[in-house]
Every structure is written in C-alpha cells, then in structure tokens.
C-alpha cells in the first residue's frame, strides 16, 4: 500500500529517489533546484556545486581530460580577451561567469543519467511552487501593476523559467501517465505565474515550443488539447484587467525595441569581427550614444554585437555538434528527452526575437540542465 502511494505521489517518489542518489547526483539536483530561489542563493549554490564536482576525480577526468575539450578553449579565450582589450570590465566578469556556468554544464552532462535527469526535473517542478508564492507576495505588496520577478531579477527572466517548467511538466506527463494530476496542477500554477510576470513574449515562446514538443513526440490529440488550452488562456487574458493594456501598448513598445535594434546593428558594424564582449550594448551605450538598455533585446543582434562574426561562428559550430548528437539519439529510447531539449532551444529562439533572457545565471543554467537530455545514459560508472 505504501509503495503504491509513493508511486502515485510525485513528491514522495522524488524524495525516495533523491535518498538513493549519490553525492555528485545530489549536487546536480541541488544546483537545478536553486534556479527557483533568489538569484543570490542560486549564485552561491552553483559556485559551491562547481567546486564540489571539480573535486570529484572520476568526473573531472571524464569531463575535461580528453581531446574534445580543446573545442571549449577558443570561446573561453574570446570571452575574456575581447572585453579586456576594449576595457569592458562588465563583459570580463560576465565572461568569467559564462565560463564557470559552461564548466558546470559540462560536468552535469557527463554525470547525467536518465534516472537522475527525471529526478532533477521532478525536483524542479516541486521547486516551481516557491517562485509562484514569491510572485504572489510581490503582487500583494507592490500592487497589480507590478510585474512579478519571483526573485529572478527580471519579469522576463521569470517568464523564461516558466517556459522551461511548462515544457518539463508536459515531458513528465507523457512519461509518467499515472502521475498526471500533479503535473497538470503544476501547469496551471505556471500559467498563473505567466500572468503574474506579464511577459507576452513568453506566451509566444510557450505556444511554439509546446506545439513542437507534441509534434516531435507524435501526440496528435495533445495538440488539439493544447489549442483548446490556448483559447481558454486568451479568454482569461481578456477578462483580467491590466493585461489588455499591455497588449494595446504593443506598438509603443515595438517602437522602443526598434530603436534599440537599430542602435545594436550600428554598434555591431563598429566591431564586426570579434564584437565588444559580453554586455557589449550597455558598455557602448554612452560611448556611441545608444538608446539606454541593458542589452540589445534581441538574442541574434546581441550575440553579434558581443561576440562578433568569429564568436558567433564558433557558437554555431558547437550548436551543430549538439544537434548532431540529438539527431542520433532522437531515434532511440531517448526520443522524449531529446524532444524536450529541442523544444527548449526553440523556446529560447522564439523569445530571443524580442529579448535576450538566457544570459542570466538562473535561466542559463536551467536551460543547460534541459540540454543535458541529449547526453543522458543508463548509468554512470561513478555511481554507487
């Protein structure tokens, strides 16, 4: 009886699986869960997790001591040297952060097994309720007009976290049919979160990525259910005050974005080969009299401005290698896992048309955890 209850309860089942996970696996889970807490907590946990995993001899050797790691060196050099040449000190710090997150991502990829991957995603679904409570408290304290950030620094970043969480819930629903109630409730809670952060780009990213996930997993009936769900959400959006105002203000916000995009292209043409380093737009804003903004509000323009043609070409090379891995595995028993990874990439690409939300510690690492799906294996030899 107790076993049956555990199997039907995601929380109890997740706790039971966590208890049987070894130390490196626990660190991976803890790092992923930290993405749903305040970004200061996330920073501390991820740094501590990186140090711990680096001291795991087997994991360190399997991850870094082979010829393929040479591919990681050129981009790491560009991330530090280019902003240093241009005296872009914010870019140097951000570049170091990207390298550290990249190292942690590679360690997680090497450590990731299918059981650890599923346990980590379940833990993330449970942790998502923390961000929802935080977002609700923000609305109560600061008023309805305030766009909830849930401790993730920016409402659009919170929206990106919700995109990933919704995809994770749908992936787990397809794999664990007897636990659909929990994932269904979590989906509803995430939808409420999207309303609270009021990120319209998030809705578009969710719509496209969810459709693609169902398509890759060959869930025709789910596509119809998804369309029905979209219709319901549109009706709710029309009924809630404050949301339509932002929709009607879209032309003004598009004008602002178009100024930023124009200035970002102008700045890129000044430094087309190697770019200006991470955070290049904000670093150049005063020098080139650009429209004031943190970044270019477009993933593609911001990448070109920050890393130039050379850096973007290197990134595309890494992306091509990743997709080669995905296409090999998507025809195997890991079809759903790879479909989740591809859908998350598409969500970022769609959201990237109007914003650059993956350049943040929480969104970036959670995205990395999902991308680990292409590297899952049955067992890891370092497991006990």
What's the SSE blueprint?
Elements: H1 2-8, H2 10-19, H3 23-34, H4 39-54, H5 57-64, H6 72-85, H7 89-111, H8 114-142, H9 155-175, H10 180-197, H11 200-216, H12 220-239, H13 243-248, H14 250-270, H15 280-284, H16 299-329, H17 335-351, H18 361-371
Helix pairs in contact: 1-2, 2-8, 3-4, 3-8, 4-7, 5-7, 6-7, 6-16, 7-18, 8-9, 8-10, 9-10, 9-11, 9-17, 9-18, 11-12, 11-17, 14-16, 16-17
Description of the molecule:
With 384 residues, the chain is mainly α. The protein has helices at residues 2-8, 10-19, 23-34, 39-54, 57-64, 72-85, 89-111, 114-142, 155-175, 180-197, 200-216, 220-239, 243-248, 250-270, 280-284, 299-329, 335-351, 361-371. The longest helix is centred in the C-terminal third of the chain and has 31 residues, at 299-329. The radius of gyration is 21 Å and the shape is globular. Mean pLDDT is 87; it is low at 1-5.
